[in-house]
Write a structure and sequence with these properties.
- This protein has helices at about 5-10, 50-55, 55-75; strands at about 15-20, 25-30, 35-40, 80-85, 100-105.
- By secondary structure, it is an alpha+beta fold.
- The longest helix has 17 residues, at about 55-75.
- It is globular and about 35 Å long.
- This is HIT domain-containing protein.
Length: about 110
C-alpha cells in the first residue's frame, strides 16, 4: 500500500519511533492532542479493524498488549484514552489500522467538542 503509515513502516518517511517489533510499530503523533499522543499500528497493512480481525485476530490482542506497555513506559497510571477511528464518519484520515493512545493530563469526559 501507499499510505503515510506504510511509508513510515518502510522508512520512506521519518517518524519518532517509540517501539517496534516484527508486528507492531508505535510512533508519536505529529499533531499531539495531549502531552502523550502515540499511534499504535500493525507493521503489516490493514485498512481497518474488520480487515485485521477477520484475517489475524491475535494481532489485535498484541496491539492492546503494546498499548499497556506504552502506558507503563509513559507513566500513565492516572489514566489514558484509546481512540480507534473507523471510516469517513468516524474521522479516519489514514487508511491504515491504528490506535491513538492519549494521556499525560486529565482528558475530561467529552470526546466530541
Amino acid at each position: 500500500m501507499d499510505d503515510v503509515f506504510c511509508k513510515i513502516v518502510t522508512g520512506e518517511l521519518p517518524s519518532e519511533v517509540e517501539y517496534r517489533d516484527d508486528d507492531v510499530l508505535v510512533i508519536k503523533d505529529i499533531h499531539p492532542q495531549a502531552p502523550v499522543h502515540l499511534l499504535i499500528m500493525p507493521i503489516r497493512h490493514y485498512e481497518g479493524l474488520a480487515d485485521c480481525v477477520k484475517t489475524e485476530p491475535e494481532l489485535m490482542g498484541k496491539l492492546f498488549t503494546v498499548v499497556r506497555e506504552m502506558a507503563i513506559k509513559f507513566q500513565l497510571d492516572k489514566g489514558y484514552r484509546l481512540i480507534l477511528n473507523e471510516g469517513d464518519h468516524g474521522g479516519k484520515l489514514v487508511p491504515h489500522l491504528h490506535i491513538h493512545l492519549l494521556g499525560g493530563k486529565a482528558l475530561g469526559t467529552k470526546i466530541i467538542k
